[in-house]
Design goal:
alpha/beta; seven-stranded mixed sheet; single chain; six-stranded mixed sheet; Metallo-beta-lactamase, Chain A; about 20% helix
């Protein structure tokens, strides 16, 4: 990362993939800032995740943090494969995760339990637990001073409206991009004005998004790299 203020997002796990990468149901991406490297979700199949990490030339040992958006199998399965490869691994998860799951992860890593929104690293915030039946957290990543923010979603089970509203509340700056699963969210009008709209994984209204936002829509696939200078 050579630019003073820059963020690089690499899609590591998705239903679609570029040539040479592997596709599978689930989601994971790598967030690289000038100071930190974070994995957001880990997909399901750890072997697929490791293959795509290697092809993306990621130094797993340099990963500072793993953030899990929610406890569904297709977002946490690869955790068992990457934890042994990281020195002093740290995992950010929701307090509402089952006690059994937290106990298993705690035996292998330091954990931070999230309830409310908070800053977890320089320039990186979690929205905190959102939603009712399915609780989920999203991440807000600052591109740089006065350059805006990126919103990363796992599945957006709580709905796009509540996630985007929280993202705009907790951090100063315009929302420049949204990347991740949008599930079956009806609030597509919330995407208006966002420069890069990158729906991934479980998004059910993909065609509608493409038609409604042709100038901002970008395809998501394992192996894709998005730079924010």
């Amino acid at each position: 990362m050579d630019n003073k203020d820059s963020v690089k997002i690499t899609i590591l796990y998705d239903n679609n993939c570029l040539a040479g990468f592997k596709a599978s149901w689930g989601f994971s991406c790598l967030i690289e800032t000038n100071e930190n490297t974070i994995i957001f979700d880990t997909g399901w199949d750890g072997n697929v995740l490791l293959h795509n990490l290697e092809l993306s030339q990621v130094n797993i040992e340099k990963i500072d943090l793993i953030v899990l958006s929610h406890s569904h199998w297709d977002h946490i399965g690869g955790l068992t494969h990457i934890l042994p490869l990281i020195t002093n691994p740290k995992v950010v998860l929701l307090k509402s995760f089952s006690e059994n799951m937290k106990r298993e992860i705690r035996a292998r890593a330091e954990i931070l339990e999230i309830v409310n929104y908070e800053k977890i690293m320089k320039g990186v915030w979690t929205t905190g637990e959102l939603g009712d039946k399915i609780k989920e957290q999203a991440l807000v990543v600052e591109i740089g001073k006065d350059k805006g923010n990126i919103l990363l979603t796992g599945c957006a089970h709580p709905d796009l409206k509540s996630i985007i509203q929280m993202a705009r509340t907790i951090s100063d700056g315009d929302l420049k991009a949204i990347i991740g699963g949008f599930h079956d969210s009806e609030e597509l009008n919330m995407l208006e004005g966002i420069e890069r709209v990158i729906p991934c994984h479980c998004t059910q209204k993909m065609d509608e998004i493409k038609i409604t936002y042709p100038d901002s829509y970008l395809k998501c696939a394992a192996g894709q790299v998005f730079n924010f200078p």
